[in-house]
Amino acid sequence: MLKSSKILVIDTATDYVFLSLLIDGIEVGYTYQNDVRNHAVTVMPKLDELLKKAQIALKEITEVIVGIGPGSYTGVRIGVTIAKMIGYLNNVPVKTVSTLALLASSSSAAKIMARIDARRGNAFTACYSQENGIMKATISDILVNVEQFDQTHEIPDEIVIIGKPDMEKILRSKLTVFVKNIHELVPNYLQVTEAERNKGKI
Amino acid sequence: MYVMGVESSCDETSVAIVKDGKTVLANVVLSQIDIHKEYGGVVPEIASREHVKGISLVFDQSIKKAGIQYKDIDLVAVTEGPGLIGSLLVGVAAAKVVAMNYDIPIIGIHHIAGHIYANNIEHDLVFPCLALVVSGGHTELILMDKHYQFKKIGETVDDAVGEAYDKVARVLDLPYPGGPMVDKLAQQGKDLYHFPRPLFDSKDYQFSFSGLKSHVINLHHNLSQRHEVFELADFCASFQEAVTDVLVKKTKAAAKEYQVKQIIVAGGVAANKGLRGKISREITDIPVCFPSLGYCTDNAAMIAVAGFFKYKTGNKADDYTINGNSRLEL
Prior knowledge:
Number of domains of chain B: 2
Distance between the termini of chain B: 25 Å
Helix content of chain B: 40-55%
Shape of chain A: globular
Structural class of chain A: alpha/beta
Number of strands of chain A: 10
Number of helices of chain A: 6
Number of helices of chain B: 12
Radius of gyration of chain A: 17 Å
CATH class of chain A: Alpha Beta
Mean pLDDT of chain B: 96
Number of strands of chain B: 10
Strand order of the largest sheet of chain B: 3-2-1-4-5
Low-confidence stretches of chain A: none
CATH class of the largest domain in chain B: Alpha Beta
Largest sheet of chain B: 5 strands, mixed
Mean pLDDT of chain A: 96
CATH superfamily of chain A: ATPase, nucleotide binding domain
Oligomer: heterodimer
Largest sheet of chain A: 6 strands, mixed
Structural class of chain B: alpha/beta
CATH architecture of chain A: 2-Layer Sandwich
CATH architecture of the largest domain in chain B: 2-Layer Sandwich
Order of helices and strands of chain B: EEEHHEHEHHEEEHHHHEHEHH
Helix content of chain A: 25-40%
């Protein structure tokens, strides 16, 4: 008998904790919950619950897909750390996916913009098109001033700010990236830290 | 019993494996000091990013160095606080994955309990025991009647001693981290300035370093304004004498009042040569222990040792809701 694929998906870069379990390409369970930025507490118990329900041990996971941001710095670090450790400990492949792509996958519109608030009038933004259920990025993850961006870009069919990701759609797309060296996996913050930005100015 | 320790409360990513609360099989420490040097202090967001970057490799190096397998580990002990929240969360998340993956109990450790238990690696704690905890974030006198029982009998009312060192070092334009530099220069200087000894005659075990720090900074400013020539070494020596006089006097008095059988010094400032020398010279009737230099600064071996004793004294393991807590109380 062929060993079945058991994919675990983790994204903690937004206000929502997203966990999904896919067996042979079919989502058998998921969590998509706004936990008021309490990811550090909720993610592992939710993961435990999800795995127990499916009667799968963490060690039996054959692949991890992790949302690497952009989004909340503290939030994304939790999911990426968990994915990194699972990949390392069990020597299983880890793939990354943009948190914006996960958001966009919740929409069935032809032209989608995904957006995550980045404060002070800014947003992490990406645009996607989809045809026959295949999603493609048309504008990759960028940090923009919302007002400026909207004045200069075509209005999409739908702007997504929350939505439960459609993992089967993500799996059909080419939006996941295989991590060659697990020890080098880091979030996509899309921004250097304030300290680094100010360093040159003094 | 093999305990894996995980520490990420500030700017060191560390994973250790310790047998029976004593034998250190591995203690891998990835320091970010060179990165933060450029900013004159630890930048929390950069620290958190560096922890994520290095975390799995530090685990890997530690388990390989120890020569055991993950399934051999009996307990995972992780620093849950106090510290930088973003940094703490990386270590806590990683430790939880190890615990879940191998079905090992996990236990949260207070960072200061770790510093205290660093002493148990090379010595055995003897009770009642008095711990002088001195670091960048803490200045405390803690009484222990038995293992894993901590009673705070005194603490700083303002700056921690290591914080005062770093601020004085910054004003004197000494390279980061300033504390060790002040100590080094102090060895070559004289106590010319007789700085105030704050709360020296108070009958309690409280400390205060903010006023002393300001005094040093003001004098430095005045001398510089008047273009007077002064030796940095004398400045450092004078500051260090004032600080250590207070620390040693209060430690000695507390040791006498509580009739302790042992004094231990813990935390990053336990590496200070001036403090080590003075406390050893002035307290001769009670054994005084220091961790060796490598165990004074942040490391996971001390967390593993504390974890061993916390668990052994009947404290329950935590569950997967264990969280980082930047202001955790001992």
